[in-house]
Amino acid sequence: MLSRLPEYIDPLHLADKRGELKGQIPVSDLDRLSDLLMADTGSVTVMLFFGRDGRLPKIEGEIEAELNLCCQNCLQTVVWPVKHTVKLGIVKTIEQANRLPDDFEPLLVEKDTVCLKEIIEDELLLTLPTYPKHQHNCLALHTDITNTDTKAATGQSHKKNPFSILANLKNTGES
Ligand SMILES: [Zn+2]
After folding, report:
1. Coil, strand or helix: which one is 21?
2. CA–CA separation, 88 vs 129, rounded Å?
3. 138 — phi, psi (to 5°)?
4. What is the pLDDT of residue 158?
5. How buried is residue 119: exposed, middle or buried, by Cβ count under 10 Å (0-12/13-18/19+)?
6. Which of 42, 58, 136, 168 is deepest in the core (most CB within 10 A)?
7. What CA–CA distance (Å, rounded) separates 61 from 2?
8. Which residues pair with 64 in a beta bridge?
9. Residue 145 Cα, ligand 1 centroid: separation in angstroms?
10. Rounded to the nearest whole angstrom, what is the distance from the C-alpha of residue 127 to the centroid of ligand 1?
């Protein structure tokens, strides 16, 4: 069973001793993220490996969670699985950050210790879609349920989905 993670970590020290952190953080602990969710249930599974790439101290790993986002079509909960690969270069200055290899994101460390959940929260916030939506046509489903005349609803389903028309326009425009 995965344990709770420390609140503060010393990333450079962990990189020197090739440390690793595995555990879970309750979603409700992540205040900025929780504000964007329909419900802050569940937890984030965190696996981080510290080390060095040449002289560069780094954190690599994975974050996994299921977040209850608000579907921008029907405004109901859409369970959004997140599996995010972490690849951070630990830097102390902006200059160092600018010199990082392209596939690294900077983790700017100004003090010895940093708040672990803030790193995780920042990473998760980056992965959130701007317009989360159900994969199925949730608006049509909603119409079917509220519409008492099911025949009319079935007849409407023959209409072309406006998004597929848009997609066609886009394709012809590009070719
Ligand atoms: Zn929806």
Report:
1. strand
2. 21
3. -70, -30
4. 46
5. buried
6. 58
7. 15
8. 45, 83
9. 14
10. 19
Give the DSSP H/E element, type plus range, for residue 50.
strand 43-53
Q: Which residue from 45, 22, 25 is spatially nearest to 34, judged by alpha carbons?
A: 25
Residue 130 alpha carbon to ligand 1 centre in Å? 14
Q: Which protein residues have a CB closer than 5 Å to ligand 1 (ion)?
A: 71, 73-74, 134, 138
- Mean pLDDT, the chain cut into blocks of 10 residues (175 residues total): 80 96 96 96 96 95 97 95 97 95 94 94 94 90 51 44 52 45
Q: What is the pTM of this model?
A: 0.75
Sort 102 into a burial class: Cβ within 10 Å, 0-12 / 13-18 / 19+: exposed
Q: Which amino acid is at 35?
A: D
**146 is written with which tokens?**
């509220």
Domain spans, the chain:
3-127, 138-174
Cα 74 to ligand 1 centroid, rounded to whole Å: 4
Distance 174 CA to ligand 1 centre (A): 29
